Amino acid sequence: MIKDIWTSFRALPAWVQIWVALVLAPVNMATLLFINQPGGLLIAGLANLAMMLNMPVMLRERGFSKLMGLPHLIPWTILVYILAFDRPAAEGLYDGFLTLLLVTNSISLLFDYPDTLRWFKGERAVAGRKA
For the chain, which end, N or C, has fewer CB atoms within 10 Å of the first or last residue's CB respectively? Predict the structure, then answer.
């Protein structure tokens, strides 16, 4: 199963692999470094919940499909709203990090909403798997 998931990940376009491995996942996991900051626990919870909810999807699909956008929709939409309109008091590095998180997850949601819709409309292919 792990080999199938890795093969699927490696079948994604190079820019997607770079985005996920070097930007999206690290930025969201880095929220754990700020857990003691104002709003840090809620922010870390929402950021990481979306990624953890992808695990059952990845295991079910044995790879990466458009369904992986679905677990991001609610937690990251709430998170983006908080960061854009109800941001906790933050200064210095934490403030800069919250801006990075806002931009990162906003970009992700620009892909996640259409991908989820496409999956529900029948685009169920798993990357790297022959139909």
Answer: C
Q: How many domains does the chain have?
A: 1
Show the tokens assigned to 70: 């679905």
The span from the CA of 33 to the CA of 38, in Å, is 12
CB 1, CB 62: distance < 8 Å: yes
pLDDT in single tens digits along all 131 residues of the chain: 889 899 999 999 999 999 999 999 999 999 999 999 999 999 999 999 999 999 999 999 999 999 999 999 999 999 999 999 999 999 999 999 999 999 999 999 999 999 999 999 999 999 998 76
What pTM did the predictor assign?
0.92
Per the structure block, which two tokens stand in for 50? 């979306």
Residue 128 resides in a domain: no
Q: Supply the range of the domain harboring residue 44.
A: 2-120
